[in-house]
Design a protein that fits this description.
Tscrpt_reg_Spx/MgsR; 6 helices; Arsenate_reductase-like; 39% helix; globular; 127 residues; Thioredoxin-like_sf; single chain
């Protein structure tokens, strides 16, 4: 059985973000074909975010960019606890900068944020 060693991954990122640029470089260095998607101009829908969340197995809180301006401006530290998951997903889908970035997925796996050791484990070559 012939398998193509190139893994196609989509990175949902903010192009001006240095962490996102480092993540793209890391993914490419690991032999992944990277499809870039702008988190602000092409913000994931609530439905998409729910799917990403389900694949990742992460808590919805992990999707929030808690160190970002939008998070502080909306006063979310005090509000998130009383919001439903649907409300949180809807809010995230309306504010690309509220989403923790980068999000990388190949449809089977999802990582949120950038840590080199995680990228090595998840997106490195495992032949």
């Amino acid at each position: 059985m012939h398998t193509d060693n190139t893994n196609k991954v989509t990175i949902i990122e903010y192009p001006k973000c240095s962490t996102c640029r480092a993540a793209v470089k890391s993914l490419k260095n690991k032999g992944n074909e990277v499809i870039s998607r702008d988190i602000v101009n092409d913000t994931p829908s609530a439905k998409e975010l729910k799917q990403l969340l389900e694949i990742s197995g992460l808590d919805i809180k992990k999707l929030f960019n808690t160190s970002g301006e939008v998070y502080r401006e909306l006063g979310l530290k005090d509000k998130l606890g009383s919001m439903s998951e649907e409300e949180k997903l809807e809010l995230l889908s309306q504010h690309g900068m509220l989403i923790k970035r980068p999000i990388v997925t190949d449809g089977k796996k999802v990582t949120v944020g950038y840590k080199e050791d995680t990228y090595e484990q998840v997106w490195g070559k495992h032949e």
